[in-house]
Amino acid sequence: MKTQRIIGLVIIVLGVIMFFIGASLFSYTGELNPIINEIGKYSFFCWLPTILVGVLLFTLKKSK
Asked: At residue 42, what are phi and psi to the nearest 5 degrees?
């Protein structure tokens, strides 16, 4: 597997993890540390663009 495909796959996995973190913190009703609250907001906001970049890296081929 080429390096570009591996990086794309890792970015896709990170995007999925960001989605689960954002969704779990979005539905949490207790008191949160402000830093954790910001991480949840940005994770939920940026998970889809992260997955799209990963898919692009995974599917694009290098031209020689």
From this structure: -70, -35
